């Protein structure tokens, strides 16, 4: 009997060791899969080095150069990397078309060239299984930022006297705002003197202290400020833009509809002391179409909608822009 007991104990010990080895192996596999997930989803890339200052601008520029370059950056799922920047059609319902097309009708391409930035414009669900096949927010945002910087740099290289007006919606507003912040800090593709204005609709990094908000009062902040520090595979909440918009502060306007969780999220929602107040606002976002209704969202007493306001504001900036000499 004692021999049998020892055998049973040894067998049980071996079983526990095998179970322990299996558990450790599973944990290692899970950690390895998570590491691969994070690498594939992408991280927020570091800013590219600023373009070194060039020589003083000439007194005239080539005849084909526009007086004003309008840069429009569409929101998530409202663009594609292969879209025609002067006649975008990947999403006929894209909100920014309600700004870009009226401007194209108002002004000749010589006075104002309206360029819609083509980029992937996706936002993958990080917990979708199987994966949803979408590009991650970090990668999409990085691609959009690179494309926006590139078109400005290329235009400035051939047209040094052209001035710029930047607009964007949702993810596109984050991109346009980030590029504007770099320009305002002195490390962008052009000097701040060449920027006429920046109009942002539903900016995920909306900071009430960084620029005025047009329309009804909004109590919250951009989702990236609300969830500052949160990191999921392919989704990094980067918080407020350091230094705001710098020297462009007085040329930036923001529009945000109350209860739009992208730009009107609870302040410091992840702070333990704010959990209850943040949770109380969750009901506002459930089945709330505010983010998709800026074409009808009224921002003043005259019944002007968000897209109409940005169009009128941009047209005024273009009207007042200098007319450079052409060679």
TrEMBL record:
Q: Which InterPro entries match?
A: AB_hydrolase_fold, Cutinase/axe
Q: Tell me which species this is from.
A: Rhodococcus xishaensis
Q: Where is this region: Disordered?
A: 76-95
KW Transmembrane (keyword) present: yes
Coiled coil ranges (UniProt) are: none
Q: Spell out the Polar residues composition-biased ranges.
A: 77-93
Q: Which SMART domains match?
A: Cutinase (SM01110)
> This chain belongs to which protein, by name?
Cutinase family protein
- Membrane-crossing ranges are 21-40
Family membership, please give it.
Answer: Belongs to the cutinase family.
Arranged from A to Z, the UniProt key words for this protein are: Disulfide bond, Hydrolase, Membrane, Serine esterase, Transmembrane, Transmembrane helix
GO MF, one example: carboxylic ester hydrolase activity
